[in-house]
């Protein structure tokens, strides 16, 4: 069986597949409470000393992940990320310069079933972020639960990943000088449920927290859209009234209530092209970063001000989408749906 698999792939394809395969479990289990609790349960086993040492270090180093972490240029430049990029492939496109004199919140749309484009373009140097945006240091914000897991915590911090918490965001945008860009997937996991092939729907109308943080810190807002990110997995939504839909909805509702997780029923290709599995399809993903929207710094912005800049941001995102949709595989009539 192994020989049959190898005979269908060349070395480059094997390395590309393995690079994606090693990353998926880390992201899929983000915030999953049973995974997080494993190091704590080890206290009651013969491995208690390993657990105690890991948890002692976690307690001692607790504030680091909310204060910029420990990024590593070496990890961000690992060769494995180049294979990951070429699997799809993934590309980063700049439309305007980002001045190092300011800080930024780059809002990333859509989330996708899994945010492959967002990760490769901003958490690694494979597509040349530092070259394309000189003087800008990117941080990718994600669920805080991942930082409760020893070792995994160090791994994600080394790539410039930080918690999507108010504490961490405000620290990066006010306490580390200028030239910092925090990447936020505004639609979050809930938006993943909307990410079907052919869909261009983003969850944004009621997502205003990132605008409020921008106003409180004076960070410029930057729209970005990853064309093709919704095309790399198929999602299954079973027909209403069937037993499959009943169990699917019950599982989704339970996990959302208990663990704050939005769970998709998705599939893609297998280890070989044309086979069935959970790997993403080989489809190009292009992340286009738009023009920065200047934001004034207001200590306590009122609701009216937040709404004003939220509306301006939506217009900027709409403009970015319309200007680039045809170039990156969509039809002229395709519209961005904002809910």
The share of residues in extended strands comes to: 5-15%
In the predicted model, the low-confidence regions spanning at least 5 consecutive residues are 30-35
Could you tell me how far the N terminus lies from the C terminus, measured between alpha carbons in angstroms?
47 Å
Going by helix content, strand content and strand pairing, the class is alpha/beta
| Bulk shape | globular
Report the order of strands and helices.
HHHHHHEEHHEHEHEHEHEEHEEEHE
Largest sheet: 7 strands, mixed
Pfam families: DAGAT
GO molecular function: O-acyltransferase activity
Membrane topology: Multi-pass membrane protein
Keywords: Acyltransferase, Endoplasmic reticulum, Lipid biosynthesis, Lipid metabolism, Membrane, Transferase, Transmembrane, Transmembrane helix
Question: Could you characterize the architecture of this molecule?
Answer:
With 339 residues, the chain is α/β, with parallel strands linked by helices. 41% of the residues lie in helices and 15% in strands. The protein has 14 helices and 12 strands. The chain has helices spanning 2-7, 11-28, 33-41, 48-60, 73-76, 79-87, 116-123, 129-132, 152-157, 166-174, 188-192, 209-217, 243-259, 303-324; strands at residues 90-94, 104-109, 137-142, 161-163, 180-184, 201-202, 220-227, 234-235, 266-269, 276-277, 285-289, 337-338. The protein has a 7-stranded mixed beta sheet, with helices on both faces. The radius of gyration is 20 Å and the shape is globular. 36% of the residues are buried. Keywords: Acyltransferase, Endoplasmic reticulum, Lipid biosynthesis, Lipid metabolism, Membrane, Transferase, Transmembrane, Transmembrane helix. It is a multi-pass membrane protein. It is found in: Endoplasmic reticulum membrane.
């Amino acid at each position: 069986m192994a020989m049959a698999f190898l005979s269908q792939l060349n070395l480059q394809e094997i390395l590309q597949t393995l690079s994606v395969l090693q990353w998926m479990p880390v992201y899929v289990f983000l915030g999953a409470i049973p995974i997080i609790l494993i190091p704590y349960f080890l206290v009651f086993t013969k491995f208690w000393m390993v657990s105690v040492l890991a948890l002692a270090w976690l307690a001692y180093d607790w504030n680091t992940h909310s204060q910029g972490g420990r990024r590593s240029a070496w990890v961000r430049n690992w060769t494995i990320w180049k294979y990951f990029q070429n699997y799809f492939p993934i590309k980063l496109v700049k439309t305007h310069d980002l001045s190092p004199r300011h800080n930024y919140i780059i809002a990333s749309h859509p989330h996708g079933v899994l945010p492959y484009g967002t990760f490769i373009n901003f958490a690694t140097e494979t597509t040349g972020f530092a070259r394309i945006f000189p003087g800008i240091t990117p941080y990718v914000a994600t669920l805080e639960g991942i930082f409760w897991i020893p070792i995994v915590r160090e791994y994600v911090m080394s790539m410039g990943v930080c918690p999507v918490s108010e504490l961490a965001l405000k620290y990066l945008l006010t306490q580390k000088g200028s030239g910092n860009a925090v990447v936020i997937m505004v639609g979050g996991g809930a938006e993943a449920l909307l990410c079907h092939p052919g869909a261009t729907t983003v969850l944004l109308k009621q997502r205003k927290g990132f605008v409020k943080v921008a106003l409180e810190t004076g960070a410029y807002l930057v729209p970005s859209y990853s064309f093709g990110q919704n095309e790399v997995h198929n999602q299954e939504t079973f027909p209403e009234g069937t037993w499959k839909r009943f169990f699917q909805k019950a599982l989704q509702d339970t996990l959302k209530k208990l663990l704050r997780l939005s769970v998709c029923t998705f599939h893609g290709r297998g280890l070989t092209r044309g086979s069935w599995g959970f790997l993403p399809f080989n489809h190009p993903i292009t992340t286009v970063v738009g023009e920065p929207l200047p934001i004034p710094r207001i200590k306590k912005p009122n609701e009216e001000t937040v709404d004003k800049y939220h509306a301006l941001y939506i217009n900027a995102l709409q403009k970015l989408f319309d200007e680039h949709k045809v170039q990156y595989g969509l039809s002229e009539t395709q519209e961005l749906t904002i809910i």
